[in-house]
Amino acid sequence: MKKSEYLQKLEEEYNNKQKAWKDHIREEPSKFKRFWKWVWYLIAFPFVWLFYNVRDWRSAICIIISFLLWSVSVWGFYLAALLCGWTTDAAKWLIGIGSAVWVWWASPIGSPFILCVTFTAIGIKTIFNKIKKTKED
């Protein structure tokens, strides 16, 4: 089995599981339970997508690109501190601000960092897949 066939099989398996999950939610007779199952589906979706898609090196690169894009507010301060010189007062302030931003991004309370990274990675992968399909056709 070729690697591309294997990846297509994994993508098909993922799509089938997502479809089955959605169908299971739609079959719920109680509107209250159906609502909360949809809420849980939307909360769990990025993590499920990451679990199924990090198996491919292209997806890992998309996640890394997305991570770098969203964390520019952190490493931008660190880069500015490096340019100022690590021992200056300005650099200490820049490192402090960068660290505070990173603590906020990394905190599980109120930070949409994982969601932002995941959905941006999904968008980047979709663009790569469209470009790949147009080259194959």
Query: What value does the average pLDDT take?
Result: 83
Dominant shape: flat
Taking Cα atoms only, what radius of gyration do you get, to the nearest Å? 20 Å
Poorly predicted runs are none
Summed up, the domain count is: 2
What portion of residues is helical? over 70%
SS class: mainly alpha
Largest sheet entry: none
Summarize the helix and strand pattern as letters.
HHHHHH
Q: Strand tally, please?
A: 0
Keywords:
137 residues; 6 helices; 0% strand; 2 domains; mainly alpha
Walk me through this protein's architecture:
α1 runs antiparallel to α2 and α2 (about 30-55) packs across α6 (about 115-135). The chain has about 140 residues and is an all-alpha fold. The protein has helices spanning about 5-25, 30-55, 55-70, 70-85, 90-105, 115-135. The chain contains 6 helices and no strands. About 85% of the residues lie in helices and about 0% in strands. The chain has 2 domains: about 1-55; about 55-135, no CATH class. The longest helix has 24 residues, at about 5-25.
Topology (elements, then pairings):
Elements: H1 3-26, H2 31-53, H3 57-70, H4 72-84, H5 89-106, H6 113-136
Helix pairs in contact: 1-2, 2-6, 3-6, 4-5
Entry summary:
By secondary structure, the chain is mainly alpha-helical.
